[in-house]
């Protein structure tokens, strides 16, 4: 996790939890959100959230492996989650290229798997598809967590 890459106002907000990542036999992963106390966290309960430095501290002590940010109707952030859009050679799928051409200058990071991308945009100023398509999930308001890596796309 490269926390230094997380942009403000995300890094400075008190909307963070840690996530335990558990590989599954089918190759997928199970993600379990945790408060800094180690108890289960809820995306719609701000009292479960902490600051990014607090979460990074408990991750260093083994409470989860990755930080995650809480999205919600009160937070004007939209996340476009492109799954399995990076091939073995590091090339992007056509869908990912199309989305990135619309994204402009915004925060883009690789997902935990290293095969997907998260495109974070503020709700105003971007015209993205209103409905998900295969390989694209759009998170736009409903309470949920997004695991963050700080592993920027397009940067050395």
The shape, in one word, is: globular
Overall residue-averaged pLDDT value: 89
| Total E-strand runs | 8
Q: Catalogue the unreliable spans.
A: none
* Total of DSSP H or I helical runs spanning 4+ residues: 2
Give the quaternary arrangement of the chains: single chain
Largest sheet: 4 strands, antiparallel
Structural class by SSE content: alpha+beta
What Rg is obtained from the alpha carbons, in whole angstroms? 15 Å
Pick out its properties.
globular, alpha+beta, 4-stranded antiparallel beta sheet
Describe it.
It is globular, with a radius of gyration of 15 Å. The strands form two sheets. A four-stranded antiparallel sheet has the order 2-1-3-8, with helices on one face. It has a four-stranded antiparallel sheet with strand order 5-6-4-7, with helices on one face. Helices cover 12% and strands 28% of the residues. The protein folds into two domains: 69 residues, no CATH class; 71 residues. The chain is an alpha+beta fold. The chain is built from two helices and eight strands. Strand 5 and strand 6 form a beta hairpin. The longest helix has 10 residues.
Any chance you could write out the topology, listing elements then pairs?
Layout: E1 16-23, E2 29-34, H1 52-60, E3 66-71, E4 77-82, H2 94-103, E5 107-110, E6 117-122, E7 136-139, E8 144-147
Antiparallel strand pairs: 1-2, 1-3, 3-8, 4-6, 4-7, 5-6
What's this entry about, in short?
The protein has 156 residues and is α+β, with helices and mostly antiparallel strands.
């Amino acid at each position: 996790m490269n926390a230094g890459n997380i942009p403000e106002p995300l890094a400075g907000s008190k909307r963070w939890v840690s996530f335990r990542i558990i590989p599954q036999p089918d190759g997928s992963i199970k993600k379990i959100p945790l408060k800094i106390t180690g108890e289960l966290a809820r995306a719609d309960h701000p009292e479960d959230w902490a600051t990014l430095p607090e979460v990074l501290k408990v991750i260093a002590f083994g409470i989860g492996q990755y930080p995650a940010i809480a999205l919600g109707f009160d937070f004007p952030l939209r996340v476009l989650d492109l799954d399995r859009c990076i091939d073995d050679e590091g090339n992007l799928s056509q869908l990912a290229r199309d989305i990135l051409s619309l994204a402009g200058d915004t925060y883009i990071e690789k997902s935990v798997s290293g095969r997907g991308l998260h495109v974070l945009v503020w709700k105003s100023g971007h015209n993205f598809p209103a409905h998900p398509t295969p390989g694209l999930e759009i998170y736009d308001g409903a309470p949920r967590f997004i695991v963050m890596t700080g592993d920027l796309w397009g940067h050395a």
